[in-house]
């Protein structure tokens, strides 16, 4: 091969000027055989002790049952090792799967169209906000404090780049967004978007009340509905039905592992009017030269590889394979399985809440109806209670003081269809036993 | 091997009520659990038996071409083999099912994975530190430009708002610049396809924020004067950004840090053998030089030795005797870029790849990638234009301009003809500065036999184009569908199936 190229050595091919030669030796990992690599990751797994705990964690990442068929099909090499389907003639299968995904998202959210995916729920919100800014020519975003704190943090990060104003709406005593301040906030007719999440970060069903949605509409502000627990879409009134023109969400719950935070799968759905402002890939149905139906990436004039700095977003790589897992999951579960799963989540959370608030000193913080998580006020600091539970091999939820200083005596607890009654009982027993009451006040 | 051509009905068209799979116990009626007003009226989704679901998606997989199907020389995308040990490692249950809010004390193994990878990348690319936070290359570009913006603001140089981008750059570069409110200045490449430091000197100044480059550039050519380019930008007070899309060309050979870059990203899904999965998920760690470490997005993994001392000294170190913590308290940080800490499963895959290769192996990866690309260039240069016919790196650019003039057969037609012969097409019409462009990146994992097969097919297509252009223009014919009416797709967007009851005319 070297002779065909006309060089004498590999080194000749990669010669660089002295000025850019390595200044220090490269040190990466030792080189290992495959069997040693497997052993190495077993050790990493052994040090990841959370696996042996009962966990009541959610807050935007949910452990759900994933039928084995999802992995068995999604891991087929053709799907796993394909690139973005630029060459449509040899990508019809993947393109059809994405078209089916777009359809699932549209049907679940009640909106007209959905994209092929974005990175995750937080970036979906940031991109949705940019859509609203572009649609309205305004730069002010109102976002509920009951929207996931990490989503709001990412919105702020993006807003820094685009120089947007992000203002927060308070949550009320029932755990839902307090929309009483909305009138005043909208008065100047300069708001691009009103952002609410349902179920919100406290687990509460937080669909925007009809009057508030109408008020936003009258002020020509776009309602963005955020969904961090996509399974709720199988049960709850759709974001479209409560006035969202754009839905930004996270679909990890559909057949994807929590995987210490990623990859997960964000989605954006919208009304037809916003179609050309949607970021990222869109798959459309067309025909080939012989009139056979065929799928293809479309409306690419929105995208960075065509429009460069005038694109609707810089996104290129998305989360296609996670969306494929979600599509296979949705197909296998069907409406019956999804309904059952959603109902079991509500039922298990309700069972857990009843057991916990029956204990002395533990009180439901909010009373709005919830999907699969809820907030409990505990005797003492939430962080202390959780640390005591950790000693009993229980991850009892999320310390809300981490994100809301005023809620440092509150824990967000989550149950899914994987949570058993036995685990709930053990959890309640552990809560009853821990000596937090004394410790909390020292 | 022709792919199947029959239409596959949509999953929405095949379902029948009563074909539900019993994965879960029956749930109680939702109406008994929640107020009716909070519930949706109907859920218009199909129930399919598991067998029908399996056949449906298996059929779709048969109509999808991946690296596992055949040679995939898609330039700029680094479609190398994706070893299955990577996926097996990511699927270890303790790692796969670890919740992002699990306390650090219970997530030590996962944190060790992230920390080891951060350090390996820092050494391999000559950066002071990496953050694994960004989800993909473009996301990392956005991150890096936010870092630059914050850095200049902190220095009282908020007027720096111009990003210089060579005309060979990836489309994400200018698009990312626009997302932080920076203006884009496109720089013309010289006759040899390189950035000329003297030309650059004329356009940089007190408003220059960042110069975004990749090296080798998108023509596959090494920028030999890159250190001068860096000097020019630094003298003007700007920062150098390295787009790591082409990092597969230079591991163990030279480093962005040694070339003078201040910021960079990597596409782990390219260089580190992570399956691209039909367009993602990817992963785009961002690396910075020492003066920018404080601005990295959160969280960062911190390591401590047995005495609680910071263990973050340069160089490789075993993680077994260290403890780790996620650090969110970084006041100068640009903030966080995503819902959770990283695309962690991909960090596992990338680290597995580092283990499989080690430093010497990674150096060899790059050398063989360069060898393969040069071999293919030299094997087709006599039948197609190679506008920059010199030693290239991991990829090279050919052009069908002469062929088009002689026969009417364009780059796109060559691409489609390759599909018929069982090869994926190269990237076409990018970079934009080469007309009728074909960008070919074979990667290091392909054998000489595979390359020879591709070359023979390519030469045969060019011959066919000269003899009977029509035979090439009507390709592909052995694929599930022929060329698709893209105009119709864009003019009459059909982006979803609609239930019959609500179908609009």
Description:
The complex is a heterodimer of chains A (442) and B (505). Chain A is α/β, with parallel strands linked by helices. In chain A, 37% of the residues lie in helices and 14% in strands. Chain A contains 15 helices and 15 strands. Chain A has a seven-stranded mixed beta sheet with strand order 2-8-7-6-5-3-4, with helices on both faces. In chain A, strands 11-12-15-14 form a four-stranded antiparallel beta sheet, covered by helices on one side. In chain A, α8 links the parallel β3 (140-144) and β4 (165-169). Mean pLDDT of chain A is 95; it is low at 438-442. Chain B is α/β, with parallel strands linked by helices. Chain B is built from 17 helices and twelve strands. Chain B has a seven-stranded mixed beta sheet with strand order 1-7-6-5-4-2-3, with helices on both faces. A three-stranded antiparallel beta sheet of chain B has the order 10-12-11. In chain B, strands 8-9 form a two-stranded antiparallel ribbon. In chain B, α5 (108-125) runs parallel beside α12 (344-380), α8 runs parallel beside α9 (226-235) and α12 (344-380) crosses α15. The longest helix of chain B is centred in the last third of the chain and has 37 residues, at 344-380. At the A-B interface, α1, α2, α3, α4 and α5 of A face α2, α3, α4, α5 and α6 of B.
